[in-house]
Structures are given as structure tokens and as C-alpha cells.
Amino acid sequence: MTEEQLVLVERDGRVGVVLMNRPKQLNALSDELTAAVVTALEELDADSEIRSIVLGGGERAFAAGADIQELAASTPIALSESRHIERWDAIRNLRTPLVAAVSGYCLGGGCELAMTCDLIVASETARFGQPEINLGILPGAGGTQRLTRAVGKAIAMDMILTGRLLSAREALQHGLVARVVAREAWLVEAKRVAGEIAAKSPIGARLAADAIDQAFEAPLSVGLAYERRNFALARASEDADEGLRAFVEKRAPDYKGS
């Protein structure tokens, strides 16, 4: 199967859209699919015309987890030498704000993939979980770490040790997702949110997301210093000059990304 078949890519103005396309396997994250996803995302990230990206799957599933047949056939040595997990790091290193559009199952590696995005828009049909315990294993692509930071220790322990799934509303209640929408609106709303982000200064948005990430990775004093640094960098941009002038002049800003 070619990358063109595995992922569907479109550009809608300043918004790039990447949709995983293994519907019969509920977008199970094979090595080939994850490689295709990363390639598509990195190409959009390198496009200066694209200011936000949506990553989605299909109506039935964002991604239902790892490709179990591949995992069952692997060896510990093959897993340790695989670049599969490195691809998650590549997604986190994208500079363009990334919105996950989730409908249906978002499990295991799929949940971990969604959590690498900057925010998640979920259909009311969405179900989130890290059910690896049912296979005698545990999350291996950031699930124990990112899920705990998102929902707290108690809920993460419950989900990871029992295989409990969260409904979309529960995921919203516990801070895993940003918005829950009607089942037919999951992709439309994600594109709309991405469009709102794309209308902002790309420099400001990028530096803001970067500073927020520090809240989960550094002590408060370090995070505050990082925030002040990013604020100064943003203020030094021409976009900041334009935004301030536009406010004073009561007009919409025209951000250039410089």
C-alpha cells in the first residue's frame, strides 16, 4: 500500500488536513501508516503557507491502537531498534499547531497519537483508552506519561490498569479533550478551530504552545522564565507590531509570520 493511499492530505487555505486511511483496520498504527502520517505532517509543517494542521482518522475510529499482528510478530530487540516510537517525537517537534480530530475509537497508540497534538476536538461518539493491559503489556508511546499529565494519577491508573475507556464527555470533564461536538461535526469543528488558530500570528501561536508545554515539563520557576523569554521573542516580531497597531486602529490584523 502506498503512502498516498494510507493518508489523505488536503490544504484548505492556511489549514492543512491529514486523515489516516486504513478504515478496515480502524486505522491500526502499522509502521507503514505512522511513517506516512509523519511524512505528511512534516511536509505541511515545512510549508510556510500552512499555519495550522488537523490530524484525523475516520468516523468509526481515529485509530484503534497499534497493529497487533505487527506487534505480535516483533521481538524485544526489533522493538528497541525500531524507529516507530521516534515518530511520536517527530510529531511533538512540529512547529505548526496541531489539532486532533477524533471520532469513534481512540485507543492505545491512537490515544497516544492524539495526545501528541496540541489540542483534541472530539465527536460525542469518541472513546478514549489505553487498554494495553488486556494484552499483557502497557502503553509504550507516552501513554503512562501524557495521560497522567492530562487526567491526573487516579483516572490514569484506572484507565491503564483496568482498561477503562472514557466517553467523550468524561474525557472533556477530566481535561483530555478541549471540545466535544455532535457526531457529524467532528472534522468540520476541528477545521474551524484550526482556522481560528491559522488566523492568529504564527509566531505568537507557536511560542505560546511552546510555553504551555513547559508547564508539564519544568518546575514553575523555570516555566515562568521560559514564558517571559517567549513573550519577549513574540513582542520583537513584526506580527506583534501589526497586532497592536490593528487593535488601536480598530481593524483586523494582517499577520505575515515575521
Task: Write a concise keyword list for the protein shown above.
258 residues, alpha/beta, 2-enoyl-CoA Hydratase, Chain A, domain 1, Lyase 2-enoyl-coa Hydratase, Chain  A, domain 2, six-stranded mixed beta sheet, four-stranded mixed beta sheet, 10 strands
Blueprint of the fold:
Elements: H1 3-6, E1 7-12, E2 15-20, H2 31-45, E3 52-56, E4 61-63, H3 68-73, H4 76-81, H5 84-92, E5 98-102, E6 105-107, H6 109-116, E7 119-123, E8 127-129, H7 143-151, H8 153-162, E9 166-167, H9 168-173, E10 179-181, H10 186-198, H11 202-214, H12 220-235, H13 238-248
Parallel strand pairs: 2-3, 3-5, 4-6, 5-7, 6-8, 7-10
Antiparallel strand pairs: 1-2, 8-9
Helix pairs in contact: 2-5, 7-8, 11-12
Explain what this protein looks like in three dimensions:
There is one protein chain. With 258 residues, the protein is α/β, with parallel strands linked by helices. The protein folds into two domains: 3-198, 2-enoyl-CoA Hydratase, Chain A, domain 1 (Alpha-Beta Complex); 202-248, Lyase 2-enoyl-coa Hydratase, Chain  A, domain 2 (Orthogonal Bundle). Helix content is 49%, strand content 16%. It has 13 helices and ten strands. The protein has helices at residues 3-6, 31-45, 68-73, 76-81, 84-92, 109-116, 143-151, 153-162, 168-173, 186-198, 202-214, 220-235, 238-248; strands at 7-12, 15-20, 52-56, 61-63, 98-102, 105-107, 119-123, 127-129, 166-167, 179-181. The chain has a six-stranded mixed beta sheet with strand order 1-2-3-5-7-10, sandwiched between helices. Strands 4-6-8-9 form a four-stranded mixed beta sheet. The mean pLDDT is 92.
